[in-house]
Structures are given as structure tokens and as C-alpha cells.
Design goal:
Elements (H helix, E strand, L loop, with lengths): L14 H6 L2 E5 L3 H4 L1 H13 L4 E5 L5 H4 L4 E4 L17 E4 L4
Parallel strand pairs: 1-2, 2-3
Antiparallel strand pairs: 3-4
Length: 99
């Protein structure tokens, strides 16, 4: 099976940028588990500024991250589970509960 990962394991920008953003888009990351410090800072920023929007693009939806997001876009690679064809393959938007 050919499984590919895209991106890097670094925060693109600064924590200040993340906390000041009006919109945060997380692609393929279980932020609460894989990156707990940015998750905690994002959750605190969202609590302080409820108008902040958080969108997750990932086939999975986790409870902790699900608690702070406004929109979850579950993607499915071509042919079902397995390697990723990249964002956009078979998008299935599922709205999150308003926060």
C-alpha cells in the first residue's frame, strides 16, 4: 500500500499568529494529540475570541479537536481507505456544533 504524507511537523508561523488568526485551517493533524502546545493555545484563543473560526480537513474527527472546531471536512481518498489522493478527493462536509 502506498501511503504518503504531505507537509512538515512544524508550526507554520508563530504562536502569536495562531492566536490572533480569525481563521485556522488544520489539515490532516490530530492537533490535541500530536501537537498539544499549539492545541492548548488555539483552544485558549478560541475561548477568548468565540468569533474565531477553526476548520479541520481530515477523514477522522476526534473529540478534543471536535470541541473547538466550527467545520469538519472529512475527505476520502479515491478507492476508499488507504493512501491520500490529496485534499479535495470526495469531500464530505459535516458541520460541527456551533461553539
Amino acid at each position: 500500500m502506498d501511503i504518503r504524507a504531505f507537509g512538515s511537523d512544524t508550526l507554520p508561523g508563530t504562536y502569536d499568529d495562531l492566536e490572533a488568526a480569525d481563521l485556522a485551517v488544520l489539515v490532516g493533524a490530530n492537533l490535541a494529540w500530536r501537537h498539544p502546545v499549539p492545541y492548548q493555545r488555539l483552544a485558549a484563543a478560541k475561548a477568548a475570541r468565540p468569533a474565531m473560526r477553526v476548520v479541520v480537513i481530515d477523514p477522522r474527527r476526534t473529540a478534543r479537536v471536535g470541541a473547538i472546531i466550527n467545520r469538519h471536512l472529512a475527505i476520502s481518498p479515491p478507492g476508499g481507505s488507504g493512501g491520500s489522493g490529496g485534499p479535495g478527493w470526495g469531500r464530505s462536509p459535516s458541520p460541527a456544533s456551533p461553539t
